[in-house]
Every structure is written in structure tokens, then in C-alpha cells.
């Protein structure tokens, strides 16, 4: 059933003497428009802060409900909330969702017709806009023309809030840096008294500090939610112990029935091959990566969102803004490049809070391949002191952090000779590392007991001990007889890997940048018996 877009007026009539940011009135809005019974964790604090005119920095896990922190304020008083968002697909999804609920939302992007844009601008200029939420890209926000429009709306007292979604994109320390986000620092100068709400799921303290400073947040309310996702079960499967990882994944997916899943791969070629393999095995699936044209990508996305396809085998191009709530399995078929990436990507499972699984396939070859790519990227950029260099160094340190911390914990249990064989790391430890990593920055200390059987190590310790034994000998044995060389004539060409590192080439004209790794790596395994 569609709801009246003006429901707040009727709510406010019954609440005549109560300020709009009182909890009761806001809960009514939440129930009326979104059908949710209560606010989650820090949502209400964020909403009340921005409604009272205060800046707010809001750190919530993936799927934590960040959107509500600006959607409810947009409904709580007349006027507009501007939402800066990094991807057109993300804006489009949100606007479609809002319209289905009868909420006046629009987005401005290069993909729209002039007619649609003109209509939006006319509404903004009308003095009494019907729009409640306007989504824009950072590129557009920073243009003088759009800024002066914003100033006009603001001078009429109609700009209630600027929300910066995925705010970590402003920081070159973050994993999704976009230079155009940097330009948002001028917002404060142009609109000194409009509250700014920065939202992110990236917890690294450097990034947080950078975000708050870059946006010139003034005395912000800083809200940080717990990063534990109790409905997610974490499991690792070890490629070195499997005869055929493709067949293994196929049987995992079949055993889970016709459930919705995302399978992340490092390379486009793996996506294509694996997707074809799974399809041949009777699984409803499709590949998605930046090598496909726009039409093919959006058709895969549509099929998956509308359940015509259940499994997407994708590079990280399939990322931000994917809002299917019933994803039951997120599988990393190759090792993720950082803790942050692992956390963010696996966090796309179980957004409806129902039990879901994160499955990581771990293999020594993958690890070496990733290390090689990271080191190549660093040496490629070692001549310059550009942002890209800084971010490539960061990539290496992120990845080493995963390995180091994991290795240290592992060696504490089994001794130093296992220092570099962290693939035998049980996921329970991996999970606790993820939590530990975030806990350094968030809550200072999260006990490992938080796991509560939400990983294979805690749930099936005997089985895991068996795998550990087998894997340790397999890995050690393999180290003696095989050596891996990764070669690519294109490795030194920065262009093709830009997708993988950062979303930073929107300057080339495309507002929507897709991030993934190209498939042009040649693996040569030389065996020495
Ligand atoms: N108070 C609430 N009660 C129940 N469900 C909620 C509540 N708030 C948000 N949700 C639901 O949680 C899901 C995730 O919300 P949302 O998309 O805002 O998350 P997010 O934090 O922006 O995630 P991401 O970082 O992945 O973009 C949505 O389906 C949303 O409807």
C-alpha cells in the first residue's frame, strides 16, 4: 500500500505541542512510512542530532540502517535533504524504494533526460518544493552552478540537511577513495549553518578523522555502532585440501537450496568461468564485472534483484548500494584484499538479520597472487608521490595487516614455524581478528567470546583440528615443490588496475566508476618434484 507523502503533516497535527524531533513522533514516522517497529541502535540519536541542527558522524556496519538516519529527518519537516552518494545505481535504488513508499525522492545524474532534470530544477526553484530527498553525485555537488542553487534553497530556509553517504570515499586512507569527494569540503563554506551528516561503515580511525576534518564538521555527535553481526556464520574452506574448488562451491550452493548468493572473485575471467560452471550444474546464476557493458550489467542486476537469478558471480564491481535483504550467502572465492573489504563484502549477507553465511575459500596460490599484484602496484607507482601511490602502499599494508595479525595469532598457538602459513587459520580466529581489528578502533576491546558459535572453529572444533592437520602438511609440502610466477605484460600499465584499487577515475567523465580487477594475469605454476 502506498503511503501519503504528506503523512508528517497529519502526524504533526496530532502532536501539535511536541517538537518534531521527539522520539514518539519520529517512531510514528518510521512505522508509517517504513513499517519498522523501532529504531535500531544509534539511528534515533543521529536523527535527533541533525534535526536539532548538529553535525553528526555516524559509523554503522553494512546493512545497519544508515539510510534511515537521513530519510526520517527528510520526513520530519518541510524542505529538502540533500544526499551525496557515490554511485548512480545506489541513488537509483534508493529513489525507487522511496517512491514505492510514496516519498518524494529524486536523483540528479548524467543518465537522466533533460526533461526529468528540468522538472526537478523547477520544483527546487518553486519556493515550495515537493521534493523531500534529492540524491546527487559528489561531482555535481561541487559545481558552482549547483552550489548556488543550494544556496538559494537554503536562503529560503528549505535545506534541512546535507547527508554524505559512504563518507569514507572522502579519505584517501579509505578503501574506496574518490577524489571528487574531496571537493565536498567546500560545502561548509557555502552552507555554514546547514547540519552535515557523514555516514560510513569504515571504522579505521585515520579515515574517521580525515572524514570529519575534510568536511569541517563542527562539534559533531560521533556515533559508533558495534560491528559484530551475530546473524552471520563465518566459515573457511581450504582450496589446498579440495580436489576441485568449483565443484565444492557448486555443491555448497546446491545444499543450501535455491538461495540468494553473491560469489566474489578477483578476476573477471574467473567470474565468467565459474558462472558458466555453476550454470551448467543447474544453478541459476550470472557473471557481473566491469568488463560487461552497461546494458549487460544492469540486466544481471535486475535479474538478481528481482530473484530471476539467484547467484551473482562478481568482482568487487558488484558493491556499494546492493540492497537485497535476503542474501543468504556471500562467498569469497579468492582471498579479499583487506580486513575492511572482507568485512564490508561479507556484510552484504543477512541484511534482514536472518541467519546467513560468509564463506571464504582460502588458498596459498591466491595469497601469493594477491601479494604479487599488490607489490606490482606499489613498484609501478614508486616514482611518484601521488595519492595513488599512497593508496597502493596502504593496500599492501592492509593486506599485510591481515597476514601479520593472523600469523601472529596463529604462531602463538602453533609456534613460529607456521608464521607464513596463515591459510590454516581457522575462521573463528579470523572472525575474532576482524572484530579485534575493529575493536582497536571502536570499542577498545571486544571479547572473542562475542563469537558465540558463529564460526566454524567454535562450532566444529574437532573437524577443524582435522583440517588444520591436513592443511598444514599440504601447505608445507607444497611450499617445497611448487613455485608460482605471475606474469602479465600489462602489469606495469597502471590503467587496467585502477578499477581494482580505487574509484578514482571519475575525472575521465564517467560519474559511475566500477571497481574491480582485470582478468589479464597469467599464472604459471612450475612444479619441482
Ligand atoms: N529500524 C529499523 N528496523 C528494521 N529494519 C530496518 C531499520 N532501519 C533500517 N532497516 C532495514 O535495514 C536494511 C539496511 O538498511 P540500509 O540500506 O539503510 O543500510 P546501510 O547501513 O545503508 O547499509 P550499507 O552500508 O550496506 O549501504 C534495509 O533493508 C532497511 O529497510
UniProtKB/TrEMBL annotation:
GO biological process, one term: DNA recombination
Keywords: ATP-binding, DNA-binding, Helicase, Hydrolase, Isomerase, Membrane, Metal-binding, Nucleotide-binding, Nucleus, Transmembrane, Transmembrane helix
Enzyme nomenclature, EC number: 5.6.2.4
Signal peptide region: none
Residues annotated as domain Helicase ATP-binding: 47-221
Keyword S-adenosyl-L-methionine (UniProt): no
Domain of life: Eukaryota
Reaction equations catalysed: ATP + H2O = ADP + phosphate + H(+); Couples ATP hydrolysis with the unwinding of duplex DNA by translocating in the 3'-5' direction
One Pfam family per UniProt: DEAD
Any one GO MF annotation of this record: metal ion binding
GO cellular component, one term: nucleus
Segments crossing the lipid bilayer: 418-440
Segments forming domain Helicase C-terminal: 241-393
Segments of skewed composition (Polar residues): 7-17
Compartments where located: Nucleus
Predominant place of localization: nucleus
Segments for region (Disordered): 1-20
Family: Belongs to the helicase family. RecQ subfamily.
Protein name as it appears in the record: DNA 3'-5' helicase
